[in-house]
Design goal:
It is built from 16 helices and three strands. The chain is mainly α and 404 residues long. The termini are far apart.
Length: 404
């Protein structure tokens, strides 16, 4: 009976109660027959039963959720808590029902004889090849708790570096978006009021005032086209970026060449490359196989292609240092540290030091960009809003001079 209970699946059902009223709901059971029998005992006439999709859970599972789960599982296993009991504790204690259901399904697979890595592989949306490969290596070597701890540390560092990049990019973009919305509101609602005031002015208006009023007329008449075009343009850009490899390659190359932010993205990508390769190599994953996961974790098409080229060269007998040098996307410091690591047999340690160094560089770069962006944005906003105010008050100053 314990095995049967462990294989329970969530079913969605529809039926009619004793009064003929249509009702629906969900129930966890070992099979459709059990669902029908359970509902019949409750006086419900079942009309439809179907399995709930693995991803049709309430709530969204984020990378942060998976990182937290990995850390909790690693901590419990290091403390000697049995694997299935650890899944129970983490699943029941999670506030997100989608995560609880996912962990329940994985636990059920493990209870029926599946390996943990095989159970994770059924959910590629949440557990990538790197995650599954490391868990598989831990199971084979009997050091699952150690590799889960290493995997949790890896995911926490990657999560932190992604967060820093997002914060560095989001701040100026959000400020510019707010500035555009404020400017549009002024153009559509405030400037027309000044225009009606100046209509009986009886003198030529200053050039800046005429320019602002002309722009305001365009906003008033075509606001729907302006906002619609910008909204569609942003949607189309991101839609194409996600689905077109050519577009991804072009944008990733442009981002690496962008002033200020290009250097930040390059450092973050190198840190991710070094951290991923170090983690995989330390777990005993063969170098050629590890580079598959490294390429996927790079997060930049330029470095993805470079990693694939490195993998191809290593498979033909080239050393990692020479292959990385041939890729021409890594600084000398990275190449020298890799060469020392290969010669001394401590490649994972050296790559970990490279990752630490570049993660520190990203921290410093984000702090510098934040401190630099604040005065720049203040100047831009001050010039924009101040220019509009001055342009609209110039006729009033002129009127005061004539009256004086």
């Amino acid at each position: 009976m314990a095995v049967t209970a462990s294989k329970q699946i969530t079913y969605l059902w529809e039926g009619k109660d004793k009064k003929g009223k249509v009702i629906k709901g969900e129930i966890r059971a070992a099979g459709e027959a059990v669902v029908n029998a359970t509902l019949r005992r409750q006086g419900i006439t079942v009309t439809k039963v179907k399995k709930q999709s693995a991803f049709a859970s309430k709530g969204k599972i984020t990378d942060k959720d998976i990182t937290l789960f990995t850390r909790q599982l690693a901590t419990m296993m290091k403390a000697g808590v049995p694997l299935l009991q650890a899944f129970d504790i983490v699943g029941k204690g999670h506030s997100n029902p989608a995560v609880a259901k996912l962990l329940g399904d994985i636990k059920a697979d493990v209870e029926t004889g599946s390996s943990l890595s095989a159970a994770f592989r059924k959910y590629p949306l949440y557990f990538d090849n790197l995650f599954c490969n490391l868990v598989g290596a831990g199971e084979q070597a009997g050091i699952l708790d150690t590799l889960l701890d290493r995997l949790a540390t890896y995911k926490e560092k990657i999560q932190a570096i992604k967060g820093k990049i997002k914060s560095a990019l989001t701040y100026p973009i959000s400020i510019l978006a707010v500035a555009f919305i404020i400017t549009a509101i002024i153009m559509i609602f405030v400037i027309p009021a000044f225009k009606s005031l100046f209509s009986g002015f009886g003198a030529d208006l200053p050039g800046p005032t005429l320019v602002v009023m002309a722009i305001s007329d365009i906003f008033v008449e075509w606001w729907w086209a302006i906002f619609g075009s910008i909204g569609f343009g942003i949607w189309f850009f991101f839609y194409t970026w996600k689905r077109s490899e050519k577009m991804q390659g072009t944008m990733d190359r442009l981002l690496l060449k962008a002033p200020i932010f290009g250097d930040l993205i390059r450092k973050a990508t190198i840190a991710r490359f070094a951290r991923t390769l170090s983690t995989m190599f330390a777990a005993g994953v063969p170098l050629v196989e590890a580079l598959d996961s490294v390429a996927g974790a790079a997060g930049n098409k330029v470095y993805f292609d470079a990693t694939k080229k490195i993998q191809s060269e290593i498979s033909t007998g080239t050393s990692l240092t020479v292959a990385m040098q041939n890729a021409q996307v890594f600084p000398n410091m990275v190449l020298q540290m890799t060469a020392i690591g290969e010669e001394s047999g401590a490649l994972d340690s050296m790559l970990s030091k490279v990752a630490d160094f570049y993660e520190g560089e990203v921290d410093d770069a984000v702090a510098s960009i934040s401190s630099l962006m604040e005065p720049v944005i203040m100047v831009v906003l001050g010039t924009l809003i101040g220019g509009l105010v001055i342009a609209m008050y110039m006729p009033i100053f002129k009127m005061g001079e004539v009256v004086g």
